[in-house]
């Protein structure tokens, strides 16, 4: 029995049918049942290419069902407390392991021994206190280890002995407290290049504690330690190029006896360093021969003096001065910085910059003034002849003047996003002949005023999203001949004029999502000129079609090179269609997304124009059925998204011939059974997501259950959380906990015995059916009729109702909307409906019997679902008993669907009744519904004598 199975109540119903199929399957494929294989149905993880993603799943231990072929495992954000010896056994191909944000407090020695290919290990934010002897045994190829944010107090002398290839170690935010522990770590790491020991409780740093270590460090982070004494008396860092200190409230004493000890440091970060100004200047000067980049963020005092000291070092070219409260910048602050090429003044609350403030920056290439309080573009930026990047984002700039960017002929990137700019001027960008990136998003721009008609010939990226544009006029961007990416999303655009994008012959990516574009706003020729466009996103607009008739002017017909198209409506009212030729001209389309567009159907010719399509997303629509012909033109399809589409079956895939389909997402539909034919019609499938469907837990799903657990090719995502919805007795139970022993036979002996019994039983049933079926049927019905008659006939007053309506719950909309208003509302009959008139608390079969015997007639509303329903079968059974017993015309058959004779063959009772009862057909009455209701009225009006007052209910022969 499968783990978790305790009672026989989980044994599925319908075993006989599955039994016959399983016998044949077993005889042909017996070996597949005796050879154990590793399946892809994982309880807690999902596979993406060669990565197992098990994050945020409340795991308490490392799962053991992850395929051994994966190269990356992400177990972050779980509740794992211990790494045991066998958790990663035989994972010789694993290259990356992420265990951050668990509660790991213990790791068994040798737990990582088999991870011989591991390159990256992340143990950040756990509960480790002690790193034991040879903890990382086997990790000889590990290059990156991060143990940030644990509670490590002690490290065994041999804990890091195996990490001979380690180049990056982050052990910050722990409780190591002294360099002795750090030294014991470093002596085993000959190739270490980057060491992060931020906030580990150091109170002093003395080089003699590291003199026996052979250090190859190029980067060292000592920040946020309470170091009072920093003393280097020996050349322990001969290759150090990056150093970060400071960031604590402790005043530090700096003592470096020889400037050559740190002669290779090129990047120094002393942000928030607490030190006397004179000592600070001495510290900076000790890097005189090598310093290139200096970071002095959040300095409390003495910043002007430190800037002057820094700028006297001829090699310094980068100054990062963030969050220093420099609300005013005058001409003296940078007057010595003639060699500086990059300045970052982000977040300083700057309001005023004198015009001469940057005069000394004759070689400045990058200037960031973002997140300040500037009201306009400072005139000081016009005096920077070498400037290539200017960042003025997140200020309070409301207007732009034509002279704001004068002389900036070398500028390549300009960032003005997150300001209050409302309009542009035609002359604004006339000098920016080399500009390649322009960011104007998240302003209040409502008009472009020809700003992009003449200038910016080299612009490649333009971001105008998050503004208030309402229309794109003809030739609005025709000067941007080099533009490749244009972002216009999250505006208020209603209309695209003809030739809106004329001149943009190099544009490859156009973002128009989240606007107010309607179908009338997509006029003929609006996309003219976009001959190289690859991606077009028009999601969340108001593009809605009511019919699928062909358009005279398909809007995308000129975009022959388009590869990705997303076109979704944000209308919440009413349903829509897509014109059958909407995609005309898109011969190279690879991805089409029309998710959440309230679509009712897709015309079978929809994709005749897109033979290269590989990804199709039609999720979150009301597509109750899909034709296999829809997929005939797109045989290269690899990914199909059909979640939340109200589909009842995946049978259309059997004949769709999607032999290259690799990814199928079909969440939250109405599927209950997944047949072998469906899955075998998709030979290339490697991932299927069926979450949130209503699974039937009986033998009809036995093959799928075994396939989900055992197949080695396809990952069935979240299969262990699939729950049963039918039968009611198993509702809520996990599908993979279902005991299918009655469906599948797994041994040769039982197979032989069962096959023999099945053959004998078949012969007996066949003989009985051919020679004794009429006698048996008559005897059976007569017995039950007597039983029910004697028990129920006189329990209630006769003719309490004119008719009892027997129907399946899926046909209830027709009964409520069509039948009930006609028979009760217009014709005045008294009807009995189970959901309305049955007595609560009484057994269902008793309610059914009393309703049938208490009504003059019984109307059976027959559909395919009716034939499959157990309770509907009981109702027609009791009605037929009364028919045979009382010899009265009490039964009226109404067919909601055309059901062929072959389809009725399994339902003996229906066929028997049709041989002596005429019937009404709703599908054949669609042109003459009034005649249908008149015939039904006459049927209800006739006397119950079986051979009197007969009339023809339908003009066609019975099935």
TrEMBL record:
Keywords carried by this UniProt record: Glycoprotein, Immunity, Inflammatory response, Innate immunity, Leucine-rich repeat, Membrane, Receptor, Repeat, Signal, Transmembrane, Transmembrane helix
Subcellular location: Membrane
Transmembrane segments: 23-42, 743-765
Any one of the GO CC terms: plasma membrane
InterPro entries reported in the protein's UniProt record: Cys-rich_flank_reg_C, Leu-rich_rpt, Leu-rich_rpt_typical-subtyp, LRR_dom_sf, TIR_dom, Toll_tir_struct_dom_sf
SUPFAM superfamilies: L domain-like, Toll/Interleukin receptor TIR domain
Membrane topology: Single-pass type I membrane protein
Pfam families, sorted: LRR_8 (PF13855), TIR (PF01582)
Domain TIR: 799-940
Top-rank lineage group of the source organism: Eukaryota
Listed GO MF terms: signaling receptor activity
GO biological process, alphabetically ordered: inflammatory response; innate immune response; signal transduction
PANTHER family, alphabetized: LOW QUALITY PROTEIN: TOLL-LIKE RECEPTOR 13-RELATED (PTHR24365:SF522), TOLL-LIKE RECEPTOR (PTHR24365)
Similarity comment text for this entry: Belongs to the Toll-like receptor family.
Protein name in the entry: Toll-like receptor 22
Natural source organism: Lateolabrax maculatus
